[in-house]
Specification:
CATH class: Alpha Beta
Number of helices: 5
Largest sheet: 3 strands, mixed
CATH architecture: Roll
Low-confidence stretches: 125-134
Number of domains: 1
Strand content: 15-25%
Radius of gyration: 15 Å
CATH superfamily: CBS-domain
Distance between the termini: 24 Å
Shape: elongated
Strand order of the largest sheet: 1-2-3
Order of helices and strands: EHEEHHEHEEH
Helix content: 25-40%
Mean pLDDT: 88
Number of strands: 6
């Protein structure tokens, strides 16, 4: 029989509903790209060295642009991103991911192999049925 859900690798729960954009991208074009790729999170990278520096979710765009009535063509991702990027190793298990998400009060966490982002684990996403069940 397989491992208990919380002891399984985070790789069992990742999905690829993310995009990577430059910090200088505007919110309007970011929303179009998110919609086109059915992404729920943007990983923001520095233009000069490609380092991951923040994340933007659809909620960030609603709360920090739309609700305020700002022009989404004029708002840059660097101005609305959450930073730093909190990630978890691909070697971690689901329990460690949940603990890290709770500790940092976040709902999504990028999974990395220390070179690139492999996917996203979320407490509410479609690929995390076990997480939703366990959190109820």
């Amino acid at each position: 029989m397989g491992a208990e859900p919380l002891e399984r690798s985070v790789l069992s729960y990742i999905h690829h509903g993310f995009i990577v954009l430059d910090e200088d991208a505007d919110a309007a074009s970011a929303v179009k790209q998110m919609h086109g790729k059915k992404a729920e999170i943007i990983i923001v990278k520095q233009k000069k060295d490609g380092k991951f520096v923040g994340v933007v979710t659809d909620s960030d765009i609603l709360d920090k642009v739309v609700v305020r009535g700002d022009d989404s063509d004029q708002v840059l991702l660097r101005d609305i991103m959450s930073s730093p990027v909190i990630t978890i190793s691909a070697k971690a298990n689901a329990r460690q991911a949940l603990d890290l998400m709770r500790l940092n009060a976040i709902k999504r966490i990028p999974v990395t192999d220390n070179i690139s982002i492999l996917g996203i684990v979320t407490t509410i996403g479609r690929s995390c049925y076990s997480f939703r069940f366990l959190l109820q």
